[in-house]
Amino acid sequence: MWWFQQGLSILPVALVVWSAASFVFSYITAIVLHHVDPLVPYISDTGTIPPERCLFGIMLNISACLGMATMYVRYKQVYALNPEKSKIIKLNKIGLTLGLMSCFGLCIIANFQKCILYYIHVLGACLTFGVGAIYMLVQTVLSYLMQPEVHSKDIFWIRLTVFLWCCSSIVSMFVSSVVLYSGLYGMNLVQKLHWDPQEKGYTAHIISTVSEWSLAFSFLSFFLTYIRDFQKISLRAVVSLHGQTLYN
């Protein structure tokens, strides 16, 4: 049995691989068709113009579904391992709610392109990355509270490191974006897909785009930490017929 076939570890693996593929395939398509510049465009810019927009939307919607499934299984796992710890149960419910909100934000990003409905797209980004970062914090705290019985110190420190990576990317992206869209470098930058390195604001643009890619991959890295946990989870169906419980 391969490592990704153990338990339900296929869920976080599929989420990470599929999400990364959605970014890469859209990027390659947009570059081949000369719709964006090769040097670190915004992720959203690689899903703005057809046909990559269609690919980007479909794949991110599937990523959102995989994300919801992964977060729900994580919720059930924490609940099953800590049935009598009210503090952990409460945090666990908060984490699930935040996670589902983050996945809903990903659906908004997938279906409302930046160049068409900018403010709705930004709302989706805030839900995905902002609320998603809080979800990561909650899961990191849960990892701390569940050690050493369930989690080792190593997994807590790994998740804390990834969370700090996520936060630094958010801060870097926010500051550079505020500078870029402050009006100092012209208007209608939202519609701008091609940049000349000699243009004013190019440095802020590159910092912002690099931060966005860094932020996206910090999220994917966080879900990779679920693999060892999910290897211990098995799925079975329970059917009740005429008062008798059958297991499959």
Automatic annotation (TrEMBL):
Instruction: Enumerate the transmembrane spans.
Output: 12-35, 55-73, 94-112, 118-145, 157-182, 202-227
Q: Which UniProt keywords apply?
A: Membrane, Transmembrane, Transmembrane helix
Keyword Hydrolase found: no
Question: Which residues belong to any copy of the CWH43-like N-terminal domain?
Answer: 8-233
Which species expresses this protein natively? Phoenicopterus ruber ruber
**What name is this protein filed under?**
DNA damage-regulated autophagy modulator protein 2
- What is the protein's membrane topology class? Multi-pass membrane protein
| GO CC annotations on file | endomembrane system; lysosome
Identify the InterPro entries for this entry. CWH43_N (IPR019402), DRAM/TMEM150_Autophagy_Mod (IPR050911)
User: Into which family does the record put it?
Assistant: Belongs to the DRAM/TMEM150 family.
Which top-rank group of organisms is this from? Eukaryota
